[in-house]
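Consider the tokenized backbone below.
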């Protein structure tokens, strides 16, 4: 998969692709990233790429011409995305869909944003990574590339499984995990995880996923139910949890969970 990233801060974006799992995906040519400095397409003597908004108002806007010229120079821009807090919010479903596209071009805005004519002429989709405002689209672009890249075949190594992670097909959150030592500063790992009983561990983990999702993101659980995304086994565990919660109301006991 190829990403073109248009930015005024190529260094901010560039370092992200040099290390760790994403760096390895680039090295292994699972992912290719073409970082384009918008300033290189300025025709101004001083490399100016921004100006104040017509109609007045605060801040500076990126002018259309450098961005138009950068996009024209890329040629095959594929699916063009403007990273913007005005966009639709990125979720794992959209991440999976984007990972199926061959070429994606990300436009990172700065200052107060970009001239709307860029959006009208070039942009297929505007994406926000959350309901907050960043100083620019660069970090948002890195977030998008990161989660899309890990969907690509071969990005994750053998020990970096996507199975049973938060937002798998069930949409449930993860279970808690522990590593050695089993006892640390008086805090113990749940007995069941060191019991060696794989079936009991599997069930405990499924139950913890249900409970975590119930307690932290009831919207995700409701969504999973609406989509009928939970197996019979999950549904049976859910009924068990509901029953335990009922009993707990009677006895105040939360045995094992
Ligand atoms: N640019 C500024 N804020 C942003 C956000 N929340 N998502 C995507 N791009 C942005």
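A designed sequence for it:
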């Amino acid at each position: 998969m190829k990403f073109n990233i248009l930015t005024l801060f190529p260094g901010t974006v560039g370092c992200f692709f040099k290390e760790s799992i994403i760096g390895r995906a680039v090295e292994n040519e699972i992912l290719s990233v073409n970082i384009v400095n918008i300033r290189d397409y300025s025709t101004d003597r001083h490399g100016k790429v921004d100006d104040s908004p017509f109609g007045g108002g605060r801040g500076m806007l990126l002018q259309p011409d450098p961005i138009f010229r950068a996009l024209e120079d890329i040629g095959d821009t594929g699916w063009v995305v403007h990273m913007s807090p005005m966009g639709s919010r990125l979720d794992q479903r959209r991440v999976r869909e984007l990972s199926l596209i061959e070429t994606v071009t990300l436009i990172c805005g700065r200052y107060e944003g970009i001239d709307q004519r860029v959006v009208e002429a070039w942009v297929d989709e505007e994406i926000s990574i959350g309901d907050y405002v960043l100083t620019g689209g660069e970090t948002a672009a890195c977030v998008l590339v990161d989660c899309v890249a890990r969907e690509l075949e071969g990005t994750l190594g053998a020990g970096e499984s996507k199975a049973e992670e938060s937002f798998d097909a069930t949409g449930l959150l993860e279970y808690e995990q522990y590593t050695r030592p089993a006892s640390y500063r008086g805090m113990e790992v749940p007995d069941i995880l060191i019991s060696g009983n794989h079936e009991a561990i599997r069930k405990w983990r499924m139950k913890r996923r249900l409970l975590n999702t119930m307690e932290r993101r009831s919207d995700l659980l409701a969504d999973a139910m609406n989509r009928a995304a939970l197996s019979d086994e999950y549904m049976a565990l859910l009924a068990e949890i509901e029953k335990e919660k009922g009993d707990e109301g009677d006895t105040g006991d939360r045995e094992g969970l």
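DSSP finds nine helices and nine strands in the chain.
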